[in-house]
Amino acid sequence: MYLGLDLGTSGLRGLLVSAEGMVVGDAAAEYSVQYPKDGWSEQDPQSWIDACRDVMSRLRHKYSKEYKSIKGIGISGHMHGATCLDKAGNVIRPCILWNDTRAAKEAAELDSMPDFRGLSGNIVFPGFTAPKLMWMARHEPNNFARVSIVLLPKDYLVYWLTGQLVTDMSDAAGTSWLEVGERRWSDVLTKESGMRRDQLPDLVEGTDVVGTLRSVVASEFSLNNDVAVVAGAADNAASACGIGAFAEGQGFVSLGTSGVLLAAKDSYAPEPASAVHTFCHAVPSKWYQMGVILSATDSLNWLSNTLGRQTTELVEQLPDRAFGPASTLFLPYLSGERTPHNDAAVRGAFIGLSKAVDSEILCQSVIEGVTFALRDCLEALKSTGTRLPSLIAIGGGSRSSFWLDTLANTLGIPVHLPAKGDFGAALGAARLAIAGVSRAPLSEVMMPPTIQKTYEPDPRLAPLYDETYQKYTKSYQALKELM
Fold first, then answer.
1. Which of 13, 64, 110, 247 has a Cα at 20 to 30 A from 119?
2. What span, in angstroms and rounded, lies between the C-alpha atoms of 350 and 479?
3. Is 79 annotated as contributing to ligand binding?
4. Angle 165-171-173 (CA atoms, 0-180°, nearest 5)?
5. Under a CB-based contact definition with an 8 Å cutoff, are residues 178 and 172 in contact?
6. Is the pLDDT of residue 421 over 80?
7. What is d(CA 203, CA 220) in angstroms, rounded to the nearest whole number?
8. Which residues form the Carbohydrate kinase FGGY N-terminal domain (predicted)?
9. Are 390 and 407 in contact (CB under 8 A)?
10. 340 cis-preceded (ω within 30 degrees of 0)
11. By C-alpha distance, which of 76, 74, 81, 92 is closest to 33?
12. pLDDT digit string (tens) for 275-325?
């Protein structure tokens, strides 16, 4: 058996997978995010350890026979988070998360330096790791002076499990310290952001075995201490492993807390000005590009909390098929935006509210606004030369037929829903463990899923969504002028 652990923003999920790739069982544990100030987003790394203990305990009791035969563990996790440790390996402060925008000024300064886009292949976004450390140096100098090593969130879990200080290429690519095309740390970028090379972990590929469980951890988990741990991957790269997206033209749309539109790439072809991310894939000699929006299902969660109703209740008001755009337009910039605007300060809005607008229309508008933002990502990807004939939909939002039909009509390409099963980051992490420990060919381990249903653009509706999308694209600048 192999175990995939997915360290998400709101919880940790563990997925037991057989050597043949069949999902046997799963368990999950939740934790919270802290928002000390507007634009800040933090998490206590100890909550990840506690969640891991909880998940392992649940798996051990529910799937005792399969659990005992775990041979390898792979880990995926949310990107960009700054987890800072001192010389003794102690956490210095709460992890600054991917959706934290406090370092917008520092990001802009680094981005203005030609080396950063040229070597990293990306805009320096406020959520990336490098500007966060620059912010710490200015605003928390005592904490910054104690920094011995900076780890990404999943890598802190790997460190706790194995004692090894490493990161994989896909996660390192989101720091602004990596030369993404060369797959190596940049002495230039680390120095220009005020860091030292020895403050960064060793670089490995996602399938590389980095070590085995520490004896104390193996004993606590009732596992053999020869259980191997592979480096794993950033959540989106792991999700690509989960649905078998490696070749040019393969991709997915993820409707999670954030929204992602990802395209696999056979070569390194950055276009930073488009605000598209160009990152290393989780496997050697592969890359991927993606557009990212900061509030996808998070926008629905906000609406749910504001109206005092369950998200599922709101979504279930809508029919299974799209029927044309709502009269109300929603701009989903609740936490700023990445692709294509790179704007940490912009905030969301409803346009066209009237007395006739009820919770159903608001829910439809939120789904459509997020979908229009994903269309922005698709257009940005197209500007780099990327072509996607179709997409596989994953994430919590993919449970909504209305949303998937809206996506197909708005993006203008077929959207595939996988047959019932697990095809996200946890499966991808398990697949990386299988490939790393067994050394089986990637083509055999990371197969694409069986498709349950395909949503095709409706020639009668697609022009209507395109017309509304054009209004949406003009709304950003109008909103900016009012703020």
1. 247
2. 10
3. yes
4. 115
5. yes
6. no
7. 28
8. 1-242
9. no
10. yes
11. 81
12. 899 999 999 999 999 999 999 999 999 999 999 999 999 999 999 999 999
Helix (H) or strand (E) holding 189: helix 187-192
Please check the confidence at residue 25 and state whether its pLDDT lies above 80.
Answer: yes
Of 166, 2, 167, 132, the C-alpha closest to 70 is: 2
Amino acid letter, residue 60: R
All domains of the chain in start order, with CATH: 2-237 (3.30.420.40), 244-422+450-483 (3.30.420.40)
Query: Tokens at residue 75, please?
Result: 């880990």
Residue 353 is which amino acid?
Answer: L
- Establish whether 447 is an annotated binding residue: no
pLDDT tens digits along 435-458: 999 999 988 998 888 899 999 999
pTM recorded for the entire structure:
0.88
Residues 159 and 146: their CA atoms lie apart, in Å, by 18
Residue type, 68: K
Give dist(CA 411, CA 370) in Å, integer.
12
Q: Is residue 202 left, alpha or beta, with left meaning phi > 0 and alpha meaning psi from -120 to 50?
A: beta
Q: Is 84 helix (H, G, I), strand (E, B) or coil?
A: strand
With beta carbons less than 8 A apart as the criterion, state whether 332 and 373 touch.
yes
Q: Write down the catalytic residue from 168, 235, 298, 405.
A: 235
Structure confidence by residue, pLDDT tens digits, 202-250: 999 999 999 999 999 999 999 999 999 999 999 999 999 999 998 888 9
Q: How far apart, in Å, do the first and last CA atoms of the chain sit? A: 54
Kindly give the interhelix angle for 104-111 and 129-139, rounded to the nearest 10 degrees.
120
Helix/strand/coil percent split, the chain, to 5: 40, 20, 40
What is the 8-class DSSP label of residue 98?
A: T
Q: How confident is the model at residue 422 (pLDDT cuts 50, 70, 90)?
A: low
At which residue do the structure tokens 């089986």 appear? 440
Helix residue ranges per DSSP H, 267-418: 297-307, 311-315, 359-383, 401-411
Nearest partner of 375 among 406, 342, 418, judged by Cα: 406
Q: Which two tokens stand for residue 286?
A: 């592969």
Q: Encoding tokens for residue 45? A: 């790394």
Q: What is the residue-wise DSSP string for 218-283?
A: HHHHT--TT-EEE--EEHHHHHHHHTT--STT-EEEEESSSEEEEEEESS----GGGT-EEEE-SS
